Amino acid sequence: MSIDPVLIQAVVALIVGILILIVPKLLNWAVAIYLIVVGVLGIVAWL
Fold it and tell me: What is the pTM of this model?
């Protein structure tokens, strides 16, 4: 049984969404971490 990346993405999005509703300050951290990860992956892919 393989794990589908779309399923992982959906579950993570759901969990993060619930956490943001509970702790709105978490949104700042979630956005910052997302941008850093996407930026690093983009630079690494470009190299």
Answer: 0.55
